[in-house]
Amino acid sequence: MSVKEMILDSKHECMSRDEMAALQGERLVDLVNRVYNNVPFYTKKMKELGVEPGDIKGIEDIVKLPFTTKEDLRNNYPFGLRAVPQSEIVRVQGTSGTTGKLTIVPYTQKDIDVWAECVGRCMTMAGLTKEDVIHVCYGYGLFTGGLGMDFGARRIGAMTVPMSAGNTQRQIMCMEDFGATALTCTPSYALHLAETITEMGKVDDMKLKVGIHGAEPWTEEMRKKIEDILHIECFDIYGLCEITGPGVAMDCKQHNGLHINHDFFYPEVLDPVTNESVGDNNLGELVFTTLVKEGMPLLRYRTKDLTSIDHTTCECGRTTPRISKFKGRTDDMKVIRGVNVFPTQVETALLSMGGDISNHYMMIVDRENNTDKLTVMVEVNENLFSDEISKLNDLKKKVGAKLKQALGISAEIKLVEPKTIQRSEGKAVRVIDNRNL
Ligand code: DLL
């Protein structure tokens, strides 16, 4: 099949930079008028900055607009930022987060259609068509994972198996019986499924060819591991409920960055302290403006996700900019004894050791006598645990040295037996911070 056939909307996904900027400009002007006139929160914020809708003439004027933060959503919970009458809203979605109130997002029918289009484009990017059977084990409910994937699968006419999370044995039975060709769930759950399928001796009974994973940071090493076990190609899908849910961006078969659905979401990558653009290929905080959203449009939403952006045309033919695999979040990052540490750094280091080490780990940060202490619990293989103690001690030293090299700080290593660390069916929890900072 030619590259063109694998693009759902080649007009928008392959648009020239100038045409795209013109389209985004028109959409931004319309958006600013809508929020200024319908959302008192934005009327006030824009007045405080001395900006009026007439000051926004093109996409380059976006820098004049105010930022929106998660805190703003919390303060306006649940529907304070709605930009259309309640009767236009057909659905709410959200996320529980780990602390505080829910984040709630109202959608109009058009918002749902745009969301379906985004996920449909992503699924097409992975080579999926109406011939495919898509096994969804993201949760259905307020969380956007399950329904988002469902809308996308429907958009391309594939058959959806709406399993939701949980009951791994049953998931595997249905994957086999219904002939799933694509699996979509968090990467951590994909690995758990892959390991269980292997234990059951069923890898060769599966028809799987594609995995679409996201909702949490994961590394290239983790991708490779899932691909090697299941003999599939895995794609990294990104999204957040505030912007639409999954489908804001995904990597194509080149696996060289995640293409943003640029006609719908305008990205900026900013220095989180100065709020200035960091330019292409430099790490910064991803900020999105929802260009066509009706229910709860957002201006310059601070995602706290750290990435870099590349505006060059991809080998796949798409012109939409690509963001690099996520390094973590500004708030996922832990500062331990003054050093910035991301869970993904630990994962990369552990997976590169292979052999006796599994990728299941947990970081625990404590403060003892005013000094930060990092403990990393790591699962090792079954056979190693029944071996001599000296072997375990050697391994412990090796893991400690590897992590010290990767993180720049030392950590206490606790090797634990297989299956000691709790598996997650949704987003994996990798860090427990007991410091009450
Ligand atoms: O996690 C939406 C989603 C569902 C994305 C299914 C992909 C697949 P929220 O619950 O609002 O929405 O959480 C959004 O999750 O700001 C990131 O920090 C993180 N995240 C999402 N996708 C990725 C990814 C969904 N591919 C938050 N890589 C975001 C790294 C991700 N982090």
Verbal overview:
- The longest helix is centred in the first third of the chain and has 22 residues, at 17-38.
- The radius of gyration is 22 Å and the shape is globular.
- With 437 residues, the chain is of the alpha/beta class.
- The chain is 32% helix and 25% strand.
- The chain has twelve helices and 21 strands.
- The N and C termini lie far apart (54 Å).
- Strand 7 (233-240) and strand 8 (245-251) form a beta hairpin.
- The strands form five sheets. The chain has a nine-stranded mixed beta sheet with strand order 4-3-5-6-7-8-9-14-13, with helices on both faces. A four-stranded antiparallel beta sheet has the order 10-11-12-15, with no helix packed on it.
- The mean pLDDT is 93.
- The chain has two domains: 1-329, Rossmann fold, CATH 3.40.50.12780; 334-433, ANL, C-terminal domain (GMP Synthetase, Chain A, domain 3).
- Bound molecules: 5'-O-[hydroxy(phenylacetyl)phosphoryl]adenosine.
- The site of 5'-O-[hydroxy(phenylacetyl)phosphoryl]adenosine has 21 residues, from helix 6, strand 7, strand 8 and strand 12.
- Its EC number is 6.2.1.30.
- Residues 338-435 form the AMP-dependent ligase C-terminal domain.
- GO terms for molecular function: ligase activity.
